[in-house]
């Protein structure tokens, strides 16, 4: 099933083949920022509707302010990708220039933002699709969770494959939206058509009397909502290592393409909305004057598609479908950015080491799965409501924007005194000026967002950042403490004085006799077999069989009046070791190797409990002595047969001179219980050939 869903694993040396050209990198890393133009206009108009329909006159100016910030951020990050091409992005910039604590702060903000990117994008995609497919609107949570699972599976297949799969929908969305805007402007300005949106005739009442300072606050809140269009811009700086060489130049070019496309679509949608008198409300049932409560509000892009192409037109469904699809795929930006950032943080010991390793398809599988789980939790908790999720959204991204640009200012200040080339100094001065303006602008937006959205839900995102910040510090502290504890001392390690071997006996059968033989082969200083007396009749039978077979190892019987097994053995091991701290005790535990999962429920339970307790005892070594049951040997033979069938008839010869595909002619058959590799669990073709 895993191979069917994800494909065959890639060799590590194929990592170079998974790198992305610009045409694929744009949909992979920029789909979030491009798709945000589908819901940022909704948030702008929705927030302005609080003051009534007359407030829509400010929408173009709010959009223009968002465009200024976006272009500034794009220009600033073009400096970042040239200065720090290793892929650390904002985290690396803040860590190197402002210190580790600021770097962790940026990382915690980005991790929260990536999770929210998936939740918001998928929820918005469901909302757009629900505008034309009523069934989706009534099952939006299930559809959103299903979309996250599908995206997870696609990304687990690998970066290059996910980029190729998402390239066509992303470019298709750009073509559809730009084509819709050009058609609308052509009909209005060239043909003179009077285009009016389906919601143009509605009368909207103001929820509050907004004047003076209240109006200023509302405009600031509208701007902070529209600033959601900037989310995803930072993903390119975090993903520079995924680009084909020259990495920095390709990343900077992709950033420029992203900024140009996003700005054009955002301004075009807001401007066409004004020309068609489109209205979008926070609560239609309450805000529409004389409404019956039956009005079903469609998204801004869907209304524009219906206005330009006509109700029921096939192109309307194309617009709705392309918008919903790009919003689903926008989560792919987070699926590529989150795992890379998690890998870097794990390498720096701020996150568990498992996030640093790549999976079968050279993708950071653990990070992808962790992101998907967190996003699903948010979608379910907030009922896939975009308006509720959007309030949490942009706090994290502007925290990282501001700290990153502040770090870049210190970066240029550090390099300028050492640079003597006039041309290089001019470039540095220009870059520092861009980053300074970017830091000021993004810092201002961050303050506005905190003031206007704190009580609306931004405090949840801030609390999540603080929790992640503290957790990462605790993880780093743990890893540092373990490293100090495990650091070897100077000089050669001291050998144990003596080795006391203890073989655990439940019955006198083949696994026990093999464990005794193996313990003898290790040549310990003392060797004792131990059995626990839980039932007198069984214990006498074990003693009698032990004496009848004349096993050359003394059998010690431990009484257990309370019928426990684990505690008496632990106490016995402690007594053996108590007299000499430099002695070690090696406990040999016979275990069954089974071929079916359900057989594990019937065997080895006492062995698992014992191992779990013995591992906490200092100076005690635990050795499992496996005995393969018939079911496990059958399973191993089936695996060997399947492997040999897949092996080509012609291939390189091994050291024995025979070809792959069969055992050497002189190889004797392995006997069960002989200790040969055929008795080992998980035998594969390589092991069979070596034997």
TrEMBL record:
Residues 638-691 are annotated as: Disordered. It holds the Pfam family AA_permease_2. Residues 652-661 have a biased composition (Basic residues). Residues 662-671 have a biased composition (Pro residues). It is found in: Membrane. It comes from Asanoa siamensis. Coiled coil: none annotated. The chain crosses the membrane at residues 53-77, 98-120, 132-154, 166-190, 210-230, 251-272, 314-341, 362-384, 390-412, 433-451, 457-475. It is a multi-pass membrane protein. This is Amino acid transporter. Gene3D superfamilies: Amino acid/polyamine transporter I (1.20.1740.10). InterPro entries: AA/rel_permease1, APC_K+_Transporter. Keywords: Membrane, Transmembrane, Transmembrane helix.
């Amino acid at each position: 099933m895993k191979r069917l869903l994800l494909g065959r694993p890639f060799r590590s040396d194929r990592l170079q083949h998974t790198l992305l050209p610009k045409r694929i990198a744009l949909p992979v890393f920029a789909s979030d920022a491009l798709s945000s133009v589908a819901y940022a206009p909704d948030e702008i108009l929705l927030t302005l509707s609080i003051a009534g329909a007359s407030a829509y006159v400010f929408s173009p100016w709010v959009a223009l302010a968002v465009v200024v910030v976006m272009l500034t951020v794009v220009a600033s990050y073009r400096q970042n990708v040239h200065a720090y091409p290793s892929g650390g992005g904002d985290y690396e910039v803040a860590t190197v220039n402002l210190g580790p604590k600021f770097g962790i702060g940026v990382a915690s903000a980005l991790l929260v933002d990536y999770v929210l990117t998936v939740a918001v994008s998928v929820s918005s995609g469901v909302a757009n699709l629900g505008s034309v497919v009523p069934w989706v609107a009534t099952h939006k949570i299930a559809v959103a969770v299903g979309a996250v699972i599908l995206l997870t599976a696609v990304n687990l297949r690998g970066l290059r494959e996910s980029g190729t799969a998402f390239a066509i929908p992303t470019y298709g969305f750009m073509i559809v939206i730009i084509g819709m805007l050009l058609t609308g402007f052509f009909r209005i300005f060239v043909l003179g058509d009077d285009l009016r949106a389906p919601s143009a005739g509605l009368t909207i009442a103001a929820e509050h009397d907004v004047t003076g300072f209240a109006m200023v606050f509302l405009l600031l809140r509208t701007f902070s909502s529209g600033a959601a269009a900037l989310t995803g811009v930072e993903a390119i700086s975090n993903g520079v290592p995924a680009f084909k060489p020259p990495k920095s130049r390709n990343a900077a070019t992709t950033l420029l393409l992203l900024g140009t496309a996003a700005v054009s679509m955002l301004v075009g949608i807001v401007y066409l909305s004004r020309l068609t008198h489109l209205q979008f409300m926070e609560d239609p049932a309450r805000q529409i004057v004389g409404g019956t409560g039956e009005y079903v509000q469609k998204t801004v892009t869907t209304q524009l598609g219906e206005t330009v192409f006509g109700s029921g037109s096939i192109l309307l469904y194309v617009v709705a479908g392309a918008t919903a699809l790009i919003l689903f795929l926008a989560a792919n930006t987070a699926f590529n950015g989150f795992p890379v950032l998690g890998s870097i943080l794990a390498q720096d010991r701020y996150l568990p080491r498992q996030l640093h390793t790549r999976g079968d398809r050279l993708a950071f599988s653990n990070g992808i799965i962790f992101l998907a789980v967190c996003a699903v939790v948010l979608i379910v908790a907030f009922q896939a409501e975009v308006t509720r999720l959007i309030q949490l959204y942009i706090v994290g991204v502007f925290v990282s924007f501001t700290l990153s640009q502040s770090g870049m200012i210190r970066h240029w200040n550090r390099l300028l005194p050492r640079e003597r080339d006039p041309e290089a100094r001019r470039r540095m001065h220009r870059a520092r000026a861009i980053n300074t303006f970017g830091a000021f602008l993004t810092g201002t937006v961050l303050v506005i967002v905190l003031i206007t959205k704190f009580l609306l839900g931004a405090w949840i995102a801030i609390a999540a950042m603080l929790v992640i910040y503290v957790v990462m510090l605790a993880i780093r502290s743990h890893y540092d403490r373990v490293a100090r504890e495990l650091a070897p001392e100077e000089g050669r390690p001291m050998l144990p004085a003596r080795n006391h071997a203890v073989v655990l006996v439940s019955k006198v059968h083949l696994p026990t006799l093999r464990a005794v033989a193996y313990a003898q082969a290790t040549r310990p200083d003392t060797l004792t077999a131990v059995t626990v007396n839980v039932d007198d009749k069984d214990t006498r039978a074990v003693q009698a069989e032990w004496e009848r077979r004349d096993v050359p190892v003394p059998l010690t019987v431990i009484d257990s009046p309370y019928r426990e097994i684990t505690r008496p053995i632990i106490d016995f091991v402690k007594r053996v070791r108590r007299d000499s701290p430099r002695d070690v005790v090696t406990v040999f535990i016979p275990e069954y190797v089974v071929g079916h999962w359900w057989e594990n429920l019937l065997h080895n339970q006492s062995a698992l409990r014992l191992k779990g307790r013995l591992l906490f005892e200092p100076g005690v070594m635990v050795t499992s002595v496996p005995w393969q049951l018939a079911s496990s040997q059958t399973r191993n033979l089936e695996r060997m047969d399947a492997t040999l069938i897949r092996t080509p008839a012609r291939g390189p010869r091994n050291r024995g001179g025979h070809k792959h595909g069969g055992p050497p002619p002189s190889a004797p058959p392995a006997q069960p219980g002989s200790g040969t590799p055929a008795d080992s669990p998980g035998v594969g073709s390589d092991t069979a050939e070596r034997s």
